[in-house]
Amino acid sequence: MRSSLREVQKDLTRERLTEAALTAFREQGYDLATADYIAKLAGASRATFYLHFKGKAELVLELLDRLEPTVVAAYRDLDELRHAPRSKIHKWVVRETARWGADSGRFEALDRAAAVERKVQERWFLCLERSADAMTGYLSEFPSGTSRRRARQNVLMQMITMERGMFLSSVRGLPLDSKLLLESLTDQWSSVLGSAGNPSTR
User: Fold this and answer.
1) What's the CA gap between 165 and 27, in Å, rounded?
2) In this structure, are residues 20 and 42 in contact, taking their beta carbons and an 8 Å threshold?
3) Is it the case that residue 112 has pLDDT exceeding 80?
4) Is 192 exposed, middle or buried (0-12, 13-18, 19+ CB in 10 A)?
5) Rg (Cα) of the chain, in Å, rounded?
6) Above 90 in pLDDT, residue 108?
7) 174 and 74 in a common domain
8) Are residues 181 and 94 in the same domain?
9) Which of 18, 69, 89, 183 has minimal CB crowding within 10 Å?
10) Residue 97 and residue 123 share a domain
11) Beta-strand (E) ranges in the chain?
12) How far apart (Å, rounded) are the C-alpha atoms in residues 4 and 150?
């Protein structure tokens, strides 16, 4: 029982440190936020921070580990829409844009960390690659070899385009026309998935 209570306390402390880090990154930026400041916000000591994480990058990598299943699941949902009407693809784009807005703090922390931490960049791209590979229905429509590799690359490039668009709009709050952004992303995904050229799918 005591061991179980210690594990619960350890998990709670780790969660407090993670949430405190998000606050610190928003307030000071990833570069300037220190382990001391993160620990202070969490009501813990610097030693406690390093008991849980080797550094800020490891903390952000844990955020990515938590986020990846949601991202992969979203693209599995999109894969189911590859022959769907454009209106359903649009609903998916709206839903994902809303998710970015609701979780903007985490996405901003990831972006700031990726700008200076190579391993965070690589981990985020791995998340996108796994998301592309989750679109098995779409990829199966292309013969193996060059054709399928090109199709996978097209999906990856569109994911990056969407990620940048949603980041600049939902996280950074740049004055982009949100309605036009949603329409543009819908058109792009419709084209990639092969439904844009078929009037019956609109």
Assistant:
1) 23
2) yes
3) yes
4) buried
5) 20
6) no
7) yes
8) yes
9) 69
10) yes
11) none
12) 50
